[in-house]
Amino acid sequence: MTILIGATPARTFDDARRWAAEGTALFTAAIDRLEPAGYDTASQLPGWTRKHLIGHVAANADALGNLISWAATGVEKRMYASPEQRNADIEAAATRPADELGAWYLRGAEELEEAMDGLSPEQWGHEVITAQLVTRKAGDVPWMRAREVFVHAVDLGVGITFADLPDDFLLALADEIRTKRGLSDNDLRDVAGPLPEVTAWLAGRPHALVDAPELGPWL
Q1: Where do the TM regions start and end (predicted)?
Q2: Which of 115, 136, 163, 219 counts the highest number of beta carbons within 10 A?
């Protein structure tokens, strides 16, 4: 298939909440497949072990929780103290014991879900600032979390692929990445294949497409 501009239905807030929950369940199931020694082996992201990746996803829950707190209280609370601190925290996570790292991930995922459940419709409309210094509505946080848990469940390298992700999520993800990469219909004219493979290609992940141009990393 080819992803056409404007062909993908706009995602809704309810979609994003559902995907965040489903993605969290998938990422949790991926961790459950690991033996303690498996945490130290390489993930599918260059230079990162699975510990790096799990630490990143755990820290992301805490960081997005900061944005939810900001929306709830009106008191500014940035995702991370600084890019340098974020990177240092991920490196530190790679040295933590597997059981400690897994417990951190589970705690953060549960606390984020509870915090999101507590926001009112008005609070979801409050503006927050992402780690990329982009002003967004708090209502975008569930989508941000869904991307993290679904895509990184694949990146863990435990046998989960883009084909295991929901089609409606893949359509929304492909549409967003295509837009962010500035790819037009003409750019995609010769790229055809199953939706999971096209989305993996757009996301800069391994794929089975033939003759698709190389794209740089994303997320």
Answers
A1: none
A2: 115
CATH number, position 81: 1.20.120.450
Structure-block tokens of residue 76: 């500014």
The total of structural domains in the chain comes to 1
CB 85 within 8 A of CB 122: no
The model's pTM is: 0.93
- pLDDT (tens place) for every residue of the chain, 219 residues total: 555 444 566 789 999 999 999 999 999 999 999 999 999 999 999 999 999 999 999 999 999 999 999 999 999 999 998 889 899 999 999 999 999 999 999 999 999 999 999 999 999 999 999 999 999 999 999 999 999 999 999 999 999 999 999 999 999 999 999 999 888 877 787 788 899 999 999 999 999 998 888 887 776
Tell me if 5 is assigned to some domain: no
Question: For residue 36, which amino acid is it?
Answer: P
**Residue-range definition of the domain harbouring residue 32:** 13-202
